[in-house]
Amino acid sequence: MTAVPVPGLVSAPPSSAPALVPGAPPPATVFADVWRGIGRENPVLVQFLGMCPTMAVTNVLANGLAMGIATTFVLVGSGLFVSLFRKYIANEVRITSYILIIATFVTLADMLLAATFPDISKALGPFIPLIVANCLLLGRAEAFAAKVPVYRAVADGFGMGAGFTLSLCLLSTIREVLGKGSILGHDLFGPRFEPWVFMMMPPGGFLTLGIALLGLAWVMELRKRRALVTA
Amino acid sequence: MSNLAWIFVSTLLVNNFTLVMFLGLCSFFGVTAKVETAWRLGLANTFVLILTALSAWVLNTFVLARTPFLRTIAFIVVIASVVQILEMALKKYLPVLFRQLGIYLPLITTNCAILGLALFQTSRSYTLIEGLVFALGAGFGLTLALSLMASIRERIELTDVPAVARRMGLVLVIASCLSMAFMGFAGMGSAE
What we know:
Chain A is mostly helical.
């Protein structure tokens, strides 16, 4: 495992970002399949897919975490079924079939969440059923799961879900700490802290992700420059 | 009547679908490079929203009352068919507009604003007329947000911004400012 060169977020040169070409994705180890979603093709920070839930539910960490786990569940489930049935789904009706498979798993996730964590389910409201319309799911089904064996589709779904969950946790931690002064509901700063309410409101979501992306671009730029100097 | 007017204004400004409720962000970031395409896509979305409100009402009244667990699946299938029909109709009767919208037309299916409208309409139990007004307000709100963003981005093209801000970072900060401006409308009254 250690001999595999890991295509990480920081080590990859920007020019090597792979385009989504038609046809099967190149062969890779299971570890690379999982790692791709967390690093170089991170759905939120690199591909900008699934923006609506990213912004809407990341005001507190618990919501971001629940949304990430629910999306991972749907990604793995739909990846498994799309890949299982890839030889039987006719080309003309493939999008509709993928949407139906995705919608089935979203309904399952919705019911499971409502049965186990009713409070979080109520706080997320319509954003759990809205996972159906997350471009990330249809994108992975069409570009990856429909063209690879089952184990790779599941690995990819798991990696993409993990990358999505990590990005959501990052954003919601920033927003909850600044906007409420707490983490997972535990008070952090005591009574003298005046919450920055702006972070809890919609503009705070745009601003947090915007600053995160600017920071990421800045780090990449610095690394590129340093590589030029040392070369 | 005043109820209908409030639904319209609150959906258009106070609870703008894109800037306050975070629905339809993919097209908000993806299709706002040019004003021309942006408002055309907004109007196409408005049309789909109105058809969706109509079909969601029919589904809620006659089908889903007994089978609520099928809601997500039924809504998404109906939306996909509505978009497919619109695509065929445009191809036949307005081929110029069809070519201009291109790939973005089928992508309306995965626009969360459409599914979101159907879900909110259900959870607030709107009547048919209220639902149609809701869809109209949401559609115009979407068009407004798309055109505003596209106008700003057209200006940015001509200015010299730092290299790190050339990609999405700057666009998101601008979206934050627009959203902040729309928060000002919250003073007009709270939505339900």
